[in-house]
C-alpha cells in the first residue's frame, strides 16, 4: 500500500501533517516534524525526540503541547545529526529556554543525538539529553545497556507536562532521571515484520513466539481488541495479587512495528512524590499523563462540539427516539425486540452527556 520504499517515509510525514492540523514539516530536506504553535514555546523548555520510522505513532504522533515539541525521523534508521541539529536550532530560535532530547538507548540514536547536542552547545543552546533504557527481557543487559522501548512514551508525556508548567531544564532532567529508574518494558512477538522493499527480518514458525525483540516489539501489536482487552485485566490482576497497587492503566498502540503482531507491557513505579506529581502538578488537577494535548496519537477527551457535529448528533438522537417502536417491531421479527429501546437509551445518554 505504498508507492515505493524510497518515498514512503516522506509521504507518511506529509499525510500526518495534513491530517493533524497541529503539525508542520521543517524544510531543507529534513524529516523533522514540528508543533505548529512554536510561538508558545517562548520561555519554556522544548522537547525533541525521534528515531527510525515504522514505529508509528511514535514519535510523530506525540507532537503538541504537554508532549513533544519536535520529532526527527530517519528512514527506518536513526535520523542524521544534521536533521537533529536543525530541529534543535529551530526550537532555540523560537525562543525556547532550553531543549531536552529524549533518546532511546540504541547506538545510532545515542551517537547521532549526542553529536547534535554537542554541536548545538557550540551554537549557545542550553541542551541536555536523557536516555530511556526500559527493556527487561534480559537479566544481564549487554555492555550497551538495556534498550529503549515503549516506556519512552511515559517520558514524552511527563516531561511535556512539566515543560508546559514552566519547569526549568534542570528540574525536568532531574525528575525524569528519577522516574526512569522505575520504568520497565517486556515484549513478545508473534510474527516478524518487513521493512518496505525487504524480506521479513526473521523467521518465526507458527505457534512460536519470541521474547525481547527490543523496539521492534513495543506495541499492542496486530492483535484484535478482543485479544488485547482481556490482557489489561490479567495484567492488573497479576499485579494486585502480588501486592502491587495499580494506580493507572492505559492500553493502545503507542509504539508499533510495521505489521508485526504481538504485545508489550510497560510498567512505571511511583513513590509518594511521583504519585503526587501525577495527581496534582502545579495548576493541574489531573495526571500529567492525562493533561489535554493535541498530539494526534494521544487519546484525549472529546473537544467541544462544533455546530455541525452538534446538529448531526441532535438529528441522530431525535430520529432514534422517534423510531423506537418501529425498531423494536423490526427486531421482534428475528430477535428479542429491544433494538429500539437500546438505541433510545443510547440517544438519551448522548443527549444528556453532550447537553444537546
TrEMBL record:
Transmembrane segments: none annotated. It comes from the Eukaryota. Signal peptide: none annotated. Keywords: ATP-binding, Cobalt, Kinase, Nucleotide-binding, Transferase. Residues 307-356 form the DhaL domain. GO terms for cellular component: cytosol. InterPro entries: DhaK_dom, DhaL_dom, DhaL_dom_sf, Dihydroxyacetone_Kinase. GO terms for biological process: glycerol catabolic process. GO terms for molecular function: ATP binding; FAD-AMP lyase (cyclizing) activity; glycerone kinase activity; triokinase activity. The keyword ATP-binding applies. Residues 4-356 form the DhaK domain. SUPFAM superfamilies: DAK1/DegV-like (SSF82549), DhaL-like (SSF101473). It holds the Pfam family Dak1. Catalyzes both the phosphorylation of dihydroxyacetone and of glyceraldehyde, and the splitting of ribonucleoside diphosphate-X compounds among which FAD is the best substrate. Represses IFIH1-mediated cellular antiviral response. PANTHER family: TRIOKINASE/FMN CYCLASE, TRIOKINASE_FMN CYCLASE. Homodimer. Interacts with IFIH1 (via the CARD domains), the interaction is inhibited by viral infection. This is Triokinase/FMN cyclase. It comes from Dissostichus mawsoni.
Amino acid at each position: 500500500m505504498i508507492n515505493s520504499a524510497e518515498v514512503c517515509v516522506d509521504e507518511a510525514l506529509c499525510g500526518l501533517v495534513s491530517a493533524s492540523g497541529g503539525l508542520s514539516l521543517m524544510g531543507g530536506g529534513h524529516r523533522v516534524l514540528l508543533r505548529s504553535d512554536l510561538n508558545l514555546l517562548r520561555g519554556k523548555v522544548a522537547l525533541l525526540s525521534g528515531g527510525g520510522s515504522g514505529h508509528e505513532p511514535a514519535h510523530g504522533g506525540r507532537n503538541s503541547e504537554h508532549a513533544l515539541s519536535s520529532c526527527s525521523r530517519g528512514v527506518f534508521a536513526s535520523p542524521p545529526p544534521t536533521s537533529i541539529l536543525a530541529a534543535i536550532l529551530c526550537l532555540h530560535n523560537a525562543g525556547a529556554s532550553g531543549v531536552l532530547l529524549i533518546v532511546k538507548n540504541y547506538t545510532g540514536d545515542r551517537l547521532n543525538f549526542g553529536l547534535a547536542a554537542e554541536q548545538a552547545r557550540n551554537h549557545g543552546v542550553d541542551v541536555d539529553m536523557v536516555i530511556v533504557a526500559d527493556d527487561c527481557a534480559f537479566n544481564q543487559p549487554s555492555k550497551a545497556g538495556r534498550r529503549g522501548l515503549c516506556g519512552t512514551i511515559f517520558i514524552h508525556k511527563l516531561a511535556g507536562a512539566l515543560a508546559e508548567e514552566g519547569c526549568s531544564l534542570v528540574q525536568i532532567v532531574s525528575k525524569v532521571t528519577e522516574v526512569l529508574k522505575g520504568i520497565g518494558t517486556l515484549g513478545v512477538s508473534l510474527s516478524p515484520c518487513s521493512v518496505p522493499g525487504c524480506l521479513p527480518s526473521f523467521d518465526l514458525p507458527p505457534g512460536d513466539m519470541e521474547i525481547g525483540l527490543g523496539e521492534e516489539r513495543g506495541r499492542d501489536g496486530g492483535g484484535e481488541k478482543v485479544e488485547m482487552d482481556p490482557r489489561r485485566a490479567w495484567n492488573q490482576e497479576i499485579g494486585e495479587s502480588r501486592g502491587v497497587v495499580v494506580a493507572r492503566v492505559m492500553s493502545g498502540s503507542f509504539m508499533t512495528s510495521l505489521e508485526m503482531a504481538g504485545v508489550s507491557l510497560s510498567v512505571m513505579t511511583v513513590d509518594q512524590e511521583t504519585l503526587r506529581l501525577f495527581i496534582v502538578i502545579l495548576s493541574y488537577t489531573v495526571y500529567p499523563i492525562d493533561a489535554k494535548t493535541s498530539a494526534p496519537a494521544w487519546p484525549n477527551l472529546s473537544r467541544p462540539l462544533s455546530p455541525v457535529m452538534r446538529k448531526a448528533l441532535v438529528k441522530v438522537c431525535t430520529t432514534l427516539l422517534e423510531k423506537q417502536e418501529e425498531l423494536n417491531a423490526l427486531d421482534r421479527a428475528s430477535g428479542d425486540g429491544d433494538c429500539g429501546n437500546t438505541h433510545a437509551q443510547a440517544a438519551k445518554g448522548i443527549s444528556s452527556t453532550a447537553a444537546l
